[in-house]
Amino acid sequence: MSEDSLYDNGTSVIEVRIYRDDQLLARELCESEDDAAAVVDRWSELGNLSFLVDDLSRHHAPEDILAPEPPEPPDVADEDYSIANPPLQDRGME
């Protein structure tokens, strides 16, 4: 099943990452916790591996709009706040 279809039908997406000595060996997507547990069990037979299991449905869905937060307005009461604008580079300097 492709990653796109996992999102399209509303099922959960659980990612299992398999590592050996901090090097990523494989990444598998699962539809349920049971599937993820089966992946971990299957890979565990090789020994000397570590796993990272992450529920991707708790992060962001494709329709999420990720926009940066607007900047906070300057604190004009701060003594270090300068109201003067710096000169523009290479303009007006002849």
Characterise the protein shown here.
- The chain is α+β, with helices and mostly antiparallel strands and 94 residues long.
- The chain has a domain at 3-58.
- The chain contains 2 helices and 3 strands.
- The chain has helices at 3-8, 33-44, and strands spanning 14-20, 23-30, 50-55.
- The protein has a 3-stranded antiparallel beta sheet with strand order 2-1-3, covered by helices on one side.
- Strand 1 and strand 2 form a beta hairpin.
- 6% of the residues are buried.
Q: How would you briefly describe this protein structure?
A:
The protein has 94 residues and is α+β, with helices and mostly antiparallel strands. The protein has helices spanning 3-8, 33-44; strands spanning 14-20, 23-30, 50-55. Strand 1 and strand 2 (23-30) form a beta hairpin.
